[in-house]
């Protein structure tokens, strides 16, 4: 199955953000509610333990220090002790205070309580549970019944072996635990309302934050090869604004790349059409005469060579858009200028002069600079006659490097100065009768200069002519005395 045939299944970033937010909020709120319930239940346990300990301590103190109000003596039997203590106590709503006296082979006899219990299933009415507590060897414990859990504490009273007695305090925690459950339920309800509010607020906030992202997607969907002019408005100084700026920068580079591609195709089609037409015309008209055939082959060969040069120049200009078009390295300016002068002298019979030479070292691409300077020298040869002066030199002024070629030809007319550096533009008036080529040479020179972060300038030559100057905005490193 191809990509186009696959079902279109996706979840928007807005929904994903909201879902993650809801998951995190749900976990957090549930944890808070559960922790609160756990804390409340723990407080209930601690409060019950304190209550049981307090009641048993009070009874123990009475049994050890108290006296019978009827006799004025210490208690000798458990019955008056239990009745006196129970008559003075007031049990809490979930609490039972019991006095138990053992009977051989039977359930313990229950003494009166401080009041009637307000409990659905009190321990005092559960004979089996009451006997279990009375006969237990432990002082405290928890009784798990079908009718509800009971927490109890017991103080045994010294008596005869046939008639044991004990004071029992029992607490039914179901009511307190139910209150903790009610708080837990209320917290869950509040959490549900909070989640609903979070859903609405999160949906609005996520939509506002992701609005530039949706605009990026919409803009990208509307872009075509013919229309790359749309840009995203940048607002604020956050990551979304940085994304919009990055996307706009990418669109700028993409637009320049497509423009360069279209320009290359237009230029190639425009300039190659003429030599192709010439070649086809001569081949169609070529007869059987050997002299005519030889002349046709010569013309066709010249046109094919011209097409080859045009293609090479166009490829070079296309490469100028790449970041590796220029590879700077440390270069001695005097040595570079001298090399260019030697190579240029072979271009024609002219009065070649090395005008001046700059000293020092700078970082540039020597091959590209040599290519540009030789192109300017070739241009000077085409617009001068044999014996005329052409000067080549370099200098450093105000932190800039200038490499130039000055000819003594007819110069450049004002209406031509603004267009001669464009592709396939040679100006409206030729400077010399020998001017040939596709009009790409000066465009290549400008591309090389701009690749070095500089520019190419046209200046008049003293005494007549044109001077083409490569102005490279680089700072020279002066050569130290004594160094070669």
How would you explain this protein's 3D organization?
By secondary structure, the protein is an alpha+beta fold. It has four domains: 11-65 and 174-215, no CATH class; 87-172; 239-319, Signal transduction histidine kinase, dimerisation/phosphotransfer (DHp) domain (Helix Hairpins, Orthogonal Bundle), CATH 1.10.287; 329-472, Heat Shock Protein 90, CATH 3.30.565.10. It has helices at residues 13-65, 78-88, 127-135, 174-222, 239-285, 290-319, 333-344, 366-382, 414-417, 441-451, and strands at 95-103, 106-110, 140-143, 150-157, 165-171, 329-332, 351-354, 361-364, 389-397, 400-407, 455-460, 466-472. The strands form three sheets. The protein has a five-stranded antiparallel beta sheet. A five-stranded mixed beta sheet has the order 7-9-10-12-11. A two-stranded antiparallel sheet has the order 6-8. 24% of the residues are buried. Mean pLDDT is 80; it is low at 1-7, 428-435 and 478-484.
Comma- or semicolon-separated keywords:
alpha+beta, five-stranded mixed beta sheet, rod-shaped, disordered C terminus, disordered N terminus, single chain, five-stranded antiparallel beta sheet, Helix Hairpins, 484 residues
